[in-house]
Amino acid sequence: MFGLEKPAGQQKPGRSGGLPKMASVGDFNVLSSSIPATKVELSVSCRNLLDRDTFSKSDPICVLYTQAIGNKEWREFGRTEVIDNTLNPDFVRKFIMDYFFEERENLRFDFYDVDSKSPNLSKHDFLGQMFCTLGEIVGSQGSRLEKSIIGIPGKKCGTVIVTAEELGCCRDSVLMQFCANKLDKKDFFGKSDPFLVFHRSNEDGSFTICHKTEVVKNTLNPVWQAFKISVRALCNGDYDRTIKVEVYDWDRDGSHDFIGEFTTSYRELSRGQSQFNVYEVINPKKKGKKKKYVNSGTVTLLSFLIETEVSFLDYIKGGTQINFTVAIDFTASNGNPSQPTSLHYMNPYQLNAYGMALRAVGEIIQDYDSDKMFPALGFGARLPPDGRVSHEFALNGNPQNPYCHGIDGVMEAYYRSLKSVQLYGPTNFAPVINHVARYAASVKDGSQYFVLLIVTDGVISDMAQTKESIVNASKLPMSIIIVGVGPAEFDAMEELDGDVVRISSRGRFAERDIVQFVPFRDYIDRSGNHVLSMARLAKDVLAEIPEQFLSYMRVRGIKPSPAPPPYTPPIHVLQTQI
């Protein structure tokens, strides 16, 4: 996900156009102007809370804490209102949080019986707490998680129900097209080469660039191509917020000439093609100097079409399951597992690189898999009893049922395998990719998506076959994450990660980019803070999954299934504030 860029166009008052502000236009990167994350709204209800009041029922409040990744410190995120005299509260005040698929967001819900107006929680009776992750809530059926409240020994503290709702105010995108007439001529030998730059206004009055059209060469009456932009990027969902549009004449040396500007808003644009959407392009400098100045041309909106975007969460809420498979490299180049220099060394005090990578990625993905059963495979080892070499064996020793329960089960099977198999070679990826592809090929209806994590020390032996497997798999509901451990050169892996050049095999190109590669060594925290470095690893390897997932669904025309009907709580009781 991408952070917000600095607001562009913060030039000195009274300066309009010209060179100083053009750096922001020339350097504009569409990605850096995206608004990060999806926002989700959490609703909290409880059933059968402890009764701490003698003559009436408890007066509950819920306090939400989030946990900082590095130091594990819990910080208060917010509080609901207090509801008087009930053990079954349905809190009205919601918690609105940023949601990133690739981050593990630990949450703690504490409940108190409020006895006075004091905001100090130690002055009130503790009713218990519940721990979970945001992914657990979102990944539950219908994004509704029900869990027991714990924290008071020997007492049943009741249950809490937390529901996540993606905030839909800015889920729309718009497809717009503009043309211009009689723009000022800026070029000495020809006409102008015009393009448009769109800025959304910020709360503090500054502007942030959010779109730039292509350049139309040598015309004063350009028609630009239609373009699509999210409503969030255009106006942050505020339909009346000012949108500033600047018109420039493109110059090869980057010193684009300012023709003029106009302002509008999403609400005005949404009227579509009409007399309201013909804008005079004004150059304030010219206007100030010339008495007879009218305008520097006009820009007309030709079309305006709203499209509602479906999101990754729509599919998860509709029941799509993410199936996670692990494949581990057992080739001899990893070194003897009994030696501390080995990448597979079983250190009783800390995880080796393989264990860290498995845990970092697996702990996040497991929240989206309802049965938490993961196939775990190995490749490149000689197996007992006869020493045959296998490139696709079950870590738990059961080829008919290679499933392990949760990430803990995967880790256990991995350690057991290290004791029973002999590290060998070569390093072949194609068999494990084809293994997952066989499953993915059997469910193409959008109900399941497969993620294969390959952890390897390196130099691949079956490059041609692997490329072919990836090109074939790019048509299936699956993604591949490769984590490279150890000091080897990983040039070949970079080639498989089709970010720069789309991967191809025998003249056929992959339908979409499905591989994400990262070298583990880039995440070793010199200070020894493994928690932080593993959170960064997970973030980088998982960040592309939602978009890869959506690209498959879009190409196949698969819409999300409707979510199960929402939970409807009984009538609200009287509320008071704290």
Automatic annotation (TrEMBL):
Select a single GO molecular function from the record's annotations and give it.
calcium-dependent phospholipid binding
* GO biological processes: cellular response to calcium ion
- Domain VWFA, by residue range, is 323-524
CC annotations in GO? plasma membrane
Residue numbers spanned by region Disordered: 1-20
Q: Which SUPFAM superfamilies match?
A: C2 domain (Calcium/lipid-binding domain, CaLB), vWA-like
Coiled-coil regions listed: none
Signal peptide bounds: none
| PROSITE patterns with a match to the protein in the record | C2 (PS50004), VWFA (PS50234)
User: What are the residue boundaries of the C2 domain, all occurrences included?
Assistant: 20-147, 156-279
Keywords, in A-Z order = Calcium, Metal-binding, Phosphoprotein, Repeat
| Domain of life of the organism encoding this protein | Eukaryota
Asked if the Swiss-Prot or TrEMBL record annotates the protein with the keyword Translocase, the reply is: no
Protein family (similarity comment): Belongs to the copine family.
Protein role: Probable calcium-dependent phospholipid-binding protein that may play a role in calcium-mediated intracellular processes.
Q: What is this protein called?
A: Copine-8
- The record's gene field reads Cpne8
